[in-house]
Design a protein that fits this description.
Number of helices: 12
Number of domains: 2
Helix content: 40-55%
CATH class of the largest domain: Alpha Beta
Strand content: 5-15%
CATH architecture of the largest domain: 3-Layer(aba) Sandwich
Shape: globular
Number of strands: 8
């Protein structure tokens, strides 16, 4: 019997062979070390985060997430529903809030779900994996599993916007959330203080207005560098992708020379717990995390 079991919603970007499947691989490795069982929701669908606000209508957007919750309630009863993707978590959490506080919205969503033989009941919590680590384990408990401390590496904890507002992590400041900093310290690394940890990466503008998005990415990386960070760690696949992938474009546009690895907390924990570079999916990085690779080889 696993120490803790959760209903799991992978989301599109983090599923196998998708753009952030290194997040899924490292999460699975992390959960193995933490004795967590993730029971994937059968036949889950996209949360609609990318297109949900593009004049598709409020009810369809909410119902997309309601279907995932209904499937979770049906197949994985009695568990919390956990997502790793910040956008998936936000969409699911918002849907739950709306459905639980609007009888009409719940009635309309269930009318649509009835066609698929499903019904939203609202019996499960919608949580981000970071919440699970902080609230169900805690930093002191997480620290106990460290076998290869991340000593000598300075990290900038980049929370981004979606896991910070409007919900955030319980007990954390909206302006200066510290859970990534505390997680880094628990793994033996050093967390740097900087002023861009909740700045949006401009994900929604990456294609429509790249100059604005890249300016935001520049500000994030520049602040991290200026405060001594050697790597950035984030809980969001879109933040990870934007801040890592567009460093080359930012360098061309602004004449900078950024080359900083952007990691997931799950990769840090996997390496610190004695996992291999393969288990942590370090080969999925565009900017190699050579210092983590060195620790993994010890």
């Amino acid at each position: 019997m696993a120490k803790k079991t959760y209903s799991f919603y992978p989301g599109c970007s983090s599923q196998t062979k998708a753009s952030s499947d290194n997040y899924l691989k490292s999460t699975n490795s992390m959960c193995k070390y933490l004795d967590i069982e993730l029971k994937e929701i059968p036949d889950w669908n996209c949360c609609g985060a990318s297109i949900g606000y593009a004049e598709g209508g409020e009810l369809p957007r909410i119902t997309l997430s309601a279907r995932n919750i209904a499937l979770s309630e049906k197949h994985n009863p009695g568990m919390d529903l956990v997502a790793t993707c910040a956008a998936c978590w936000l969409s699911t959490r918002e849907a739950k809030e709306r459905l639980d506080h609007s009888t009409q919205m719940k009635t309309d969503a269930n009318e649509a779900l009835k066609e698929a033989g499903l019904a939203y009941e609202g019996k499960q919590n919608a949580r981000h994996m970071a919440e699970v680590l902080v609230e169900d384990f805690g930093f002191d408990e997480l620290k106990k599993g460290v076998k290869k401390p991340l000593q000598g590496i300075k990290f900038a904890g980049y929370v981004g916007c979606q896991t910070n507002r409007p919900f955030g992590i319980a007990g954390e400041s909206f302006e200066n959330p510290l859970y990534l900093d505390n997680l880094v310290e628990a793994m033996g690394g050093e967390a740097v203080s900087y002023d861009q940890k909740v700045t949006c990466c401009g994900g929604a503008l990456a294609f429509s207005e790249p100059e604005k998005s890249q300016k935001q990415i520049k500000d994030i990386i520049e602040s991290a560098y200026d405060h001594g960070a050697e790597m950035i760690v984030t809980p969001c696949p879109l933040c990870q992708a934007n801040v890592e992938i567009y460093q080359g474009e930012v360098n061309k546009r602004f004449g900078t020379k950024f080359n900083i690895p952007v990691m997931y907390y799950s990769q840090l924990i996997t390496i610190a717990y004695g996992g291999t570079a393969q288990e942590a999916a370090l080969d999925g990085q565009l900017v190699r995390a050579t210092k983590l690779e060195e620790i993994a080889r010890k």
